[in-house]
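Worked problem 6 (solution included).
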Amino acid sequence: MSQVEPLLMLTALPADLRAALETAGHALQPLADLPPGPLPGWRIAVTSAMAGCDAAGFARLPDLGLLACMGAGLERID
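Solution. The predicted structure is:
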């Protein structure tokens, strides 16, 4: 059985998306609840098209391998 990755939420997510991710077994960690500075160990993060992730956000997540972006249109991802 494979291990389900915890997900770092870079922004608030809609309740239905949160519920679907939690039902799939993911633990969700809001970025706002973590201290400032580098956050090693996070491999997957979730954001929205409106919130995006700028260069400073990526710099805080040295182990990030996947950024999932909910929404469509102009994404604010550097």
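Discussion: Strands lie at 7-9, 28-30, 44-48, 66-70.
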